[in-house]
Amino acid sequence: MSGSIPSTSSATSEICPSVPPQLEMKAQPRKRQYVQYYPNMEAALTAVNDGLSTRMAAEKYDVSQRTLYNTAKRRHPKKAGRPNTFSLEEETEICEILIRCSKIGVPLGKRTLIKIVKAVALVKGKPDFVDFRSYER
């Protein structure tokens, strides 16, 4: 094995394109991709919207009746998971600040990183993000 630098994940290179090779991170293990369990769901929804009952459409298109009903009635419209706190531009700005700090030799520990992100959150007007009491020890 030679002393080569491990490659970065695609997400890191998109957010921080000018990361020096010394700061590149190892590629993260890939997350499982979403699997569409019911490929006929769109056709079944169209049939329900055209007047077919959810039970009949579920049988005809081999789709779960409850899933079809919930989708047709929009019972779960929100995406699963936590929403993003920062936009892509704000994350890029934080990356640039961190890269500038590393270039001038500022030691970046956990608390310094939290202080930088907290300051950016305050400037951007994100008061709900500012509470870091659980992280500071």
TrEMBL record:
TM segment ranges: none
Annotated compartments: Nucleus
Q: Which domain of life is it from?
A: Eukaryota
Query: What residue spans carry the region label Disordered?
Result: 1-23
Q: What is its main location?
A: nucleus
Low complexity bias locations: 1-13
User: By its UniProt entry, which InterPro entries does this protein fall under?
Assistant: Homeodomain-like_sf, HTH_Psq
Q: Which residues form the HTH psq-type domain?
A: 40-78
Q: Which Pfam families would you find in this protein's record?
A: HTH_psq
Q: What molecular function terms (GO) are annotated for this protein?
A: DNA binding
What is one GO cellular-component annotation here?
nucleus
Q: What is this protein called?
A: HTH psq-type domain-containing protein
Q: What is the lineage of its organism?
A: Eukaryota, Metazoa, Ecdysozoa, Tardigrada, Eutardigrada
